[in-house]
Amino acid sequence: MDWSSLGTGIAVVLTLMIYSYLVGDNVLFRIAEYLLVGVSIGWSTLQIIFGIIIPAFDSVRQETAGGSPTLATVLTFAIPLVLGALLLVRVGRATRSLHNLIMALVIGTVSALALAGAVFGTLVPQVGQTIVNLRGGAGSNSWDILGNIVLVAGVLLSLAYFQFTIRKNPEESGTAQAGVIVRLLGRWSLMLAFGAIFGSVFLTYFAALIDRLMFLIKLGG
Q1: Angle between helical axes of 96-118 and 71-86 (0-180°, round to 10)
Q2: Which ranges does the record mark as transmembrane (predicted)?
Q3: How confident is the model at residue 92 (pLDDT cuts 50, 70, 90)?
């Protein structure tokens, strides 16, 4: 059996099943959708088993082969094992509070990791990239300087949009009116940024669509 041809045939059938959604929701599309979800969950499960659980047991077994394991090793693997087992004991009201406690611990840990990742992986690097030399550095041309100016102006205008203490009142002073204008420019800056992000996402989906269409065209040709 030619496994390459079989894989290509399955890919063609699944692609056509996904494209069948263009004529409306149908059984073929739902089958392909369920297969995608099932394969994704199965792949994730195998990654957890062979990438985390089995190496953990191998590590404990290697340490116990030369003698008794250390307390740190036992706690490192025993605590996650116990917490994971406690997640499976929600079979009645008596154990629901314990289950909720473990879930709160898991959600709190994940939230803390996500927050730290967002701050140190996204926010801090973006702030660092905003601190640029408006006059340009060595080897910079006029376009580089203009790009730096637009970058800093866009950041400042976007931040100024969230200044909610300014009210739109015709009788306000000139300073207040200037603040309203700055907020308006900040709104346009945000709209341009969101439009660019939406456009890039749209192009990504179009690239995936073109890739699958070219796949079918090459097979048909």
Answers
A1: 110
A2: 6-22, 34-57, 69-89, 101-125, 145-164, 185-210
A3: low
